[in-house]
């Protein structure tokens, strides 16, 4: 207290105040008093609460510590009762609606509840605290609006709940709000007790009808429907919470996302020992893959290797069953190369961000027309990636880890013929709808498998991406219809051989043209100075490129060695960069080539060198 605060008061009164403060301090240090109550009591004592004034005469002739503790307890009860009365008076004048809660906050709480990071009652309590203007919850939301960090927001909300401050201040309002939302969701009158008890029979029937209707309309897969109906029969509280929010905001897309996430999360728990159906096993594997991928993303975010936009985009691709993401995961399960998985994910998310709404819309349209969101194993990109991952990446790594890719060795001709047949068989399964990226991946897969040599791959890549050759696209269109892998391989080889521009180039010549201009471009009208300015060879600036990638000395040496030996993968990498002008893709490819070169050099001759 301030030294002159009680200067005009009787000494007995000052003695009482000092005794009260000492008792409060002792109770706080002994753990009998929480920090909020400790500060509350100190303020009341220093402000001369009316109960203290009435107790003045009682303690004139001596002070008993037990009596002091009882006095302090009555002080706390009286003040809390007063605050509760004030809160009730405010709520009587105005009852805020959940419609004022931002959808981002509602969705975050739903997902957290589905993942069992926060209890259902705590989520309701946070919603009520927000609509009643709780300073802690609003402060957390305002921080999110500035930082746009959902992980930090969720962590802050969980900490707020654990302090118990909301339970003390919002207990009665949470009951009334939960009851109100339950009424809106079930479309009939229910009491607060019924809302707390869980789903009524009518709730179950309404939710099951909604799930069936959405599944029939294609919004939910058959496996999702089966899991969600089982959860409804068990009266799972997450379903009730999702339906309550949907009834309040009528956001169908958000409701569908919540149902899908819940179904994926709960599928493994619902699968009993007798659940051996193929559909259930496939769904369980996809759910496990999604969880492992998201755990990896969390680690990358924690290491600051993934920004918020990339994290959100990848999570959306995972939840949407993006074939490229799951194909990368399949390759990871075969090769156990987490570095390669991270590189692939970064390439996918950067391409998705650059592509924007138009590219994403095209991918969704082709998926909706031919495959369905849940069947991620049967799209074209996934089919190609499975062939590439299961046999090309994994098969080309021997048990000792050596990368076997010497295309010039005559002893491997028979193996290449077998690989070509395997390529044809792999590509021949399932209905396909191939984008330009898918077609490029097929060409690169054939290059890695040895079905195409590097000259043919360079020619086909240029004709696909630069010339947009109709004959080449016709060959892929025919493959989409007849699914004849052998016919596709023969067509590609014929087109590559018929190309008059497929002239062999040295690595130096190729590096001279990474500026993206056509190799046959006439330069007769240009003077020597302009020609030299336009031809800035990557070979001369290769050290700068390596330095900007943050590679180790061993990796940098491996890249220089690959360039000097005209490594076939280095050539393909530079040719793709010449066409696409994607620096991030170039750096990712160079890192992969460096790792492969180091791995091969530690076990034998440099793989892929001429």
From TrEMBL:
Feature: compositional bias, Acidic residues: 399-428, 518-530
Query: Which residues lie within the region annotated Disordered?
Result: 389-435, 515-535
Specify the protein name: Uncharacterized protein
Q: Which organism is it from?
A: Rhizochromulina marina
């Amino acid at each position: 207290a301030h030294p002159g605060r009680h200067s005009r008061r009787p000494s007995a009164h000052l003695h009482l105040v000092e005794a009260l403060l000492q008792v409060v301090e002792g109770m706080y240090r002994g753990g009998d008093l929480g920090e909020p109550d400790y500060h509350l009591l100190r303020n009341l004592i220093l402000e001369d609460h009316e109960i203290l004034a009435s107790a003045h005469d009682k303690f004139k002739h001596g002070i008993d510590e037990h009596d002091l503790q009882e006095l302090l307890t009555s002080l706390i009860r009286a003040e809390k009762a007063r605050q509760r009365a004030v809160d009730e008076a405010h709520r009587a004048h105005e009852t805020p609606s959940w419609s004022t809660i931002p959808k981002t906050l509602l969705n975050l709480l739903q997902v957290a509840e589905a993942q069992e990071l926060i209890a259902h009652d705590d989520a309701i309590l946070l919603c009520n605290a927000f609509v009643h203007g709780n300073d802690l919850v609003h402060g957390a939301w305002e921080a999110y609006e500035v930082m746009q960090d959902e992980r930090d927001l969720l962590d802050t909300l969980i900490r707020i709940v654990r302090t118990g401050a909301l339970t003390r201040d919002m207990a009665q309002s949470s009951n009334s709000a939960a009851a109100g939302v339950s009424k809106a969701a079930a479309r009939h009158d229910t009491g607060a007790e019924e809302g707390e008890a869980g789903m009524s029979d009518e709730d179950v029937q309404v939710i099951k009808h909604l799930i069936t209707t959405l599944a029939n309309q294609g919004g939910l897969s058959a496996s999702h429907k089966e899991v969600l109906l089982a959860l409804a029969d068990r009266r799972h509280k997450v379903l009730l919470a999702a339906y309550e929010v949907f009834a309040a905001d009528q956001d169908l897309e958000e409701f569908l996302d919540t149902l899908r996430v819940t179904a994926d999360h709960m599928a493994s728990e619902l699968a009993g020992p007798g659940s051996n159906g193929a559909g259930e096993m496939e769904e369980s594997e996809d759910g496990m893959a999604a969880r492992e991928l998201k755990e990896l993303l969390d680690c990358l975010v924690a290491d600051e290797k993934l920004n918020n936009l990339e994290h959100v985009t990848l999570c959306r691709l995972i939840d949407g069953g993006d074939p490229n993401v799951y194909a990368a995961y399949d390759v990871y399960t075969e090769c156990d190369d987490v570095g390669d998985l991270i590189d692939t994910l970064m390439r996918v998310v950067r391409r998705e961000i650059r592509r924007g709404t138009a590219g994403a819309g095209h991918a969704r349209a082709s998926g909706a027309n031919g495959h369905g969101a849940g069947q991620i194993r049967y799209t074209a990109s996934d089919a190609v990636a499975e062939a590439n991952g299961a046999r090309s990446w994994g098969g080309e790594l021997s048990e000792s880890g050596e990368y076997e890719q010497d295309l010039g060795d005559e002893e491997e001709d028979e193996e290449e013929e077998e690989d070509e047949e395997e390529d044809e068989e792999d590509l021949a399964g399932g209905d396909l709808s191939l984008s330009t990226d898918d077609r490029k991946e097929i060409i690169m897969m054939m290059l890695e498998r040895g079905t195409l040599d590097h000259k043919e791959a360079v020619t086909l890549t240029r004709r696909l991406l630069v010339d947009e050759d109709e004959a080449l696209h016709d060959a892929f269109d025919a493959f989409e219809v007849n699914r004849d892998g052998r016919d596709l391989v023969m067509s590609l080889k014929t087109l590559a051989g018929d190309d008059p521009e497929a002239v062999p180039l040295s690595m130096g010549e190729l590096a001279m043209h990474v500026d993206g201009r056509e190799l046959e471009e006439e330069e007769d009208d240009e003077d020597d100075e302009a020609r030299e300015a336009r031809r800035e060879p990557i070979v001369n600036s290769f050290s700068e490129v390596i330095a900007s990638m943050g590679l180790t000395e061993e990796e940098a040496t491996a890249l220089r060695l690959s360039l000097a030996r005209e490594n076939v993968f280095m050539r393909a990498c530079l040719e793709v960069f010449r066409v696409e002008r994607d620096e991030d893709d170039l750096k990712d490819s160079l890192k992969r080539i460096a790792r492969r070169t180091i791995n091969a050099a530690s076990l034998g001759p440099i793989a892929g060198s001429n």
